[in-house]
Amino acid sequence: MMQFKTILKNPAEWMMSSGPNGEIVISSRVRLARNLKNLSFPGWAIEEDRSLVLNQVKPVIESLTEMRGAFSSELTDLTAVKKQVLVERHLISREQAAKAIGSAAVMNRKQTLCVMVNEEDHLRMQSIKAGLNLSAAFKMIDKVDTKIEENIDYAFDNQYGYLTACPTNLGTGMRASAMLHLPGLVLSDQVNKVIQAVNKIGLAVRGLYGEGTEALGNLFQVSNQHTLGEPENEIIARLEKVIKQIIEHEENAREKLYDDNRTTLDDKIGRSYAILRYGHIISTKEALDLLSMLRLGVDLGYFSDELRGLIDVLFMEIQPAHLQVYANRKLNAEERDCLRAKIMRDRLKNLPEPSKFYKNSSNEQPPEED
Amino acid sequence: MNCDVCNENDATVYLTQIVKGEMQKVNLCEDCAKEKGVTDPTGFALADALLGMDSDQEKSESVDLMTCKACGFSHSEFKKSGRFGCSECYSVFQSGLESLVKAMHKGTRHIGKVPSRYRVVKKYNDQITELKDLLLNAINDENFEEAAKLRDEIKLADADFNESNEGSLEN
Ligand SMILES: [Zn+2]
Ligand SMILES: [Zn+2]
């Protein structure tokens, strides 16, 4: 079985590989909510019933071929910091991190698949893929779900479909979402307009860590709001279509910034580079914003493409719990800010200065090097 | 579904009353509803109670006292958390639920994936419904030969279904 430290040492597959539309879409996730028949939902169940569900479900999940060599742990066996690491990696939700007896998480080695037991529902399974690839993520989790249902009797209703603790998840029980990096729309003050338009057509836009969280680092999650009355493939197709439109808006915004406000861009990317290379005290929020500018720099050709993967890894590694596991001790806020800055300096120490060298190297003449 | 009063017209008005914590359902046709002075044809009172916008305090209090026999979850609990206690709660608190669900979702019927073990039930249900429709038509047409054949088919479908059910229980 995979050790916790292995999770930390290895970035998830989706962070390292570049998927379709990887410049703007960081990852695609699909989550399914399922419950067992005749047992109280986790939030209402007594401890014995929660354990009953866990004992019934955990061996089924662990025996999946997809979960060979997986990491599997009851949340009561993890320290608060380790749980927080899983939250920061989007492997478990904040809500589940707070849950105690009977809650567990099982995830595969590549960290592309994670099944949570006794969260808001008995089972919450999710898959993560790099870039805009919701249909592949759905295919992956659908297969796992089909295998689990061979052994587990799900609560299912002919009218309402999969029955969930909260009626907002009825029907397909599916939440599909993509993490978008939208610095162009933020810098050009268009992002609120886009969010409102997206909300109007029944899709939700949230910050980095889901419901009610701030859009740190210009990162936004777009997901379906409705789960009932529309089949899975249509929900996904609709979501992908809207995301492609957002991508187009983002691309236009970036192009306009590049054409009309080149100096502003040069300045923002240059300053971000400087602070990340030479700063000594950096908060999470500042770090995410600086990394966002660096990522924009990669997309616009100020840095080489290889940097993108490292930035996506850093988005994770500089967060509070990751830092504390890295340091192997509890850190106060000031200590975290210092360590964060040190990690950035180390990881980016060989990063060449931003230059327009990489931009469309095929059709633009690279400047002479001295 | 026929109207509970005249037992003739199709019921379009579904009412739910709570008597001593038990739910009683009355289904009425448009005409009988008017005659009985039912002014809430869409059954929104309960939905409003579900949503916490009670217009009728007394009614919502009696709804609050309802509990799910399977898990002991009460309706007032649902108003607090917006979540149910178990899957059975969906049938216990079903009245008014549809309008709540309608406000949340694109539709009120699931049209996506169906777990394989429910597919058999669903197929059986669909088949029986169709056969019974045909049977009714045959009887109306006084085509008794056809009706007898359909009755046999229904029996056969029932037997098949029961058999396959027993089989799956043994697994
Ligand atoms: Zn009537
Ligand atoms: Zn219940």
Detailed description of the structure:
The complex is a heterodimer of chains A (370) and B (171). In chain A, 46% of the residues lie in helices and 14% in strands. Chain A has 14 helices and 10 strands. Chain B has 171 residues and is mainly alpha-helical. Chain B contains 8 helices and 2 strands. Chain B has helices spanning 30-35, 44-51, 57-64, 75-81, 89-92, 97-104, 116-140, 144-170, and strands at residues 13-19, 22-28. In chain B, strands 1-2 form a two-stranded antiparallel ribbon. In chain B, β1 and β2 form a beta hairpin. The two termini of chain B are 37 Å apart. The model of chain B is unreliable at 17-23, 39-59 and 167-171 (pLDDT under 50). The chains are: A alpha+beta (370), B mainly alpha (171). Chain A binds chain B through residues 35, 37-41, 43-44, 120, 142, 145-146, 149-150, 153-163, 165-168, 170-172, 174, 202, 226-232, and chain B through 70-71, 73, 77, 81-88, 90, 97, 100-101, 104-118, 122, 125.
